Amino acid sequence: MNIKELVPVISILLSIRIAEYAMKKYKEQKDVEVTKKQKSRKQTKKYIITAPSILKVGLPCGIFFGCTTIAFILSQIFKWEFVQQIENCYFMLICLLVSIGFTVLGIVLTLYGYIWKIEYDTQEIIYRSALGITRKYRIEDITRCVGKRRNQYRFYQGEKKIFQYEMDAEGDVYDLLIILKKGG
């Protein structure tokens, strides 16, 4: 192997190792969070619904795809033969846009995974949107709950939709429906 073939291989292997390390740390952190949630739930009787965990690995995946794209950009800069089919400036522009796109997508998914949350008990619901906007509702304020396709539930206050979640969210997704039926 010469240096021209070795640089992309090393960058791809390095990206894979970074993604594996991030997944390992994420799993360890999730285990700690689950035990903390179980302890706090026993003390305060609060229920929590969070975004699916798969969204929280968006950043490492974005970095992985971004690094592999950068390897192709480097190959074009150094005039390596295996990417000579496309003109130089177009190839670099396409690679750069794809790299930026995957990185931005990874950041957005990661932020959504960590910020979006619904906390509730038998008296009130605290909803935090993906943008970080927090709103509080009393259980009595919710007039109806509509189940849509794909196990999606929408909650209304009069005719106004106040929030929704899908059943692939993590946490106490069914308990909110039970509390609403008891209260209503």
Protein described:
The chain is an alpha+beta fold. Helices cover 55% and strands 21% of the residues. It has helices at 3-44, 58-77, 88-115, 173-183, and strands at 47-50, 117-120, 124-128, 134-138, 144-148, 152-157, 160-166, 170-171. Helix 2 packs antiparallel against helix 3. The longest helix has 42 residues, at 3-44. It starts with a helix and ends with a helix. The model has no long low-confidence stretch (mean pLDDT 76).
Radius of gyration: 23 Å
Strand order, sheet with most strands:
4-3-2-1-8
Helix content: 40-55%
Distance between the termini: 71 Å
Q: Summarize model confidence as the mean pLDDT.
A: 76
Number of helices: 4
Largest sheet at a glance? 5 strands, antiparallel
Structural class: alpha+beta
How does the overall form come out from the CA principal axes? elongated
The succession of helices and strands, N to C, reads HEHHEEEEEEEH
Classify the beta-strand content into a percent band.
Answer: 15-25%
Strand runs, count: 8
Poorly predicted runs: none
